[in-house]
Amino acid sequence: MKGLVGDDEILADGIPQIAFVGRSNVGKSSLINILTNSKVSRTSSFPGRTQEINIFLVNNSFYLVDLPGYGFARSSGLGREKIGELIDSYLFNSIHSQKKVVMIIDANVGLTDKDILMLEELEKFNKDFIIVANKIDKMTQSEYHKKINEIKKVVGEQHLIVPFSSKTRKGLESLSDKIFE
Length: 181
Ligand code: GTP
Ligand code: MG
Known about the structure:
This protein is of the alpha/beta class. It is built from 5 helices and 6 strands; from the N terminus they run βαββαβαβαβα. The chain has a single domain, classed as Rossmann fold, CATH 3.40.50. Helix 4 links the parallel strand 5 (129-134) and strand 6. The structure holds guanosine-5'-triphosphate and magnesium ion. Guanosine-5'-triphosphate is lined by residues 22, 24-30, 43-45, 47-50, 68-69, 134-135, 137-138, 165-167.
């Protein structure tokens, strides 16, 4: 799905949509692979892998919408803008609504400026969203507590934060409960 024009039909069939949004390389596609039990969503150690919106149907019940990552500087100004527009046009400027938006951040990095902008937009548009603090396998126990607390302080109490790892699958059960509830 390159743009929304002409591709709207698939998303207009009433099946609930769950969108995955976050910076490039935070692990959106990896998480979708786990939730769909497959390798359909291409992942890469090289940021900027997902360049268009990919949609996966799970159990004939949900669409998982894999969005390109924001905030990656490889593409020229124009390319980067286009990706930003694509994300906006799906999330904030279209007839589509999401049952849930899953915003993924890197727990080791915390919230970047771009993450905060996204957070503010999600709030402004009253999206029902949860935050996945990913890659917790890369931190020690004490780093984990420190970082998760910092993230909680920035996000506030009103949004759920799920510490998660695609590598160890820690947090998977509570995450899928929340996503598919
Ligand atoms: P874009 O499509 O570029 O926006 O990236 P993405 O958010 O879809 O990230 P992707 O799933 O492609 O993962 C990027 C890299 O991070 C890959 O090398 C993954 O193996 C790695 N990765 C994803 N999740 C985890 C995790 O929980 N722990 C660790 N250690 N690595 C992870
Ligand atoms: Mg991706």
